[in-house]
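S.,

As promised, the S-adenosyl-L-homocysteine run. Input:
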Amino acid sequence: MNETKKTDLLSLLPSELEELVVSIGEPKYRATQIFPAMHKGISPDAMTNLGKVTKQKLSEIAFFYLPTVRRKLVSALDGTIKYLFALSDGNCVESVVMKYKHGNTICISSQVGCRMGCAFCASTIGGKVRDLAPSEMLGQIIAAELDSGEKISNIVMMGIGEPLDNYANVIKFLKLVGHEKGLNIGYRHISLSTCGVVDKIEMLAKENFPITLSISLHASDDETRSAIMPVNRKWNIEKLLSACKSYYKTTGRRISFEYTLISGKNDSPEAAARLASLLNGALREKNGGESFPIHVNLIPVNPVSETGFSASDKRAVEKFASILEKKGIRATVRRRLGGDINASCGQLRRAEENG
Ligand code: SAH
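Predicted complex:
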């Protein structure tokens, strides 16, 4: 049976599911039974309150699929779990479950591969294969909860792929994951990370999801940024920061900046000072206007064998952070979870593909 011609049930909002059940001659209330069950990982076929005939009619026009665990690595250091999930067409994506005092966080993927071409990133090496459906983003969370037995309360969209390059599906995913009859995860507990797709940042500001935006900045001048992040050739730093400012003004949500420190490329004290002036100049209001909360996350680059980049040493990282702090910018060095299982995304999928 060709599943591609069938409707993907887990990608449907309650109103769409209602239309679907009515179209096969079932009462509307079936949707209110099926929607919450699916979001707990129960397929319509396994539901005890649906009759055989209903299940048969549903399976003729629609399918329910959850990602399955292809590989699973558990950190002996901190309990971080890294999953390689197989999708219905055999493609794989990665998700990471991290345990923090304030609750469990999952890092999910938004595409199979990526077409943004960042020079230091493992996810983009083979290009983009395809976008993930809303159900496949949601499915990573449901499958991880089922497998780990852990309740997940926070989501970061920082796995494989560029979420804003899969805009419509990501928006639908946000509607589904925040739905009160589904996982009901509050938007304030969701972060979306982007390399800087400016037109979509502007669209997202208008959607009114109070999520946190993370900007992968990684450089403080256009020449360096364009060399490591091709997206900068389309939207330079000035355009990106101006979009950030209007995102903040529209949503009131803080934005955090990711800065991956690569030895000899972007980690000099001059680069730090330039970054501070850049952010202060672009985002801080003069004359007593409302100040934009600026937070920079410093991440020593995770070496990927194909890229040849190496991480800045501890002293360079500390110096970089202290220069930012002195200029009034909050900087944290990302604590590395799951260091023993290579928990950064993209590498497990590549290892699996290369056999
Ligand atoms: N496409 C989105 C989200 C996925 S990447 C984005 O670019 O933000 C999540 C974060 O990991 C980004 O900040 C990305 O730049 C960073 N990253 C990618 N490869 C890395 C590596 N080898 N070491 C450290 N950070 C990396």
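Residues 28 and 305 are 54 Å apart (CA to CA). Residues 118, 120-121, 158, 162, 193-195, 216, 258, 260, 299, 301-302, 304, 344 surround S-adenosyl-L-homocysteine (CB under 6 Å).

- D.
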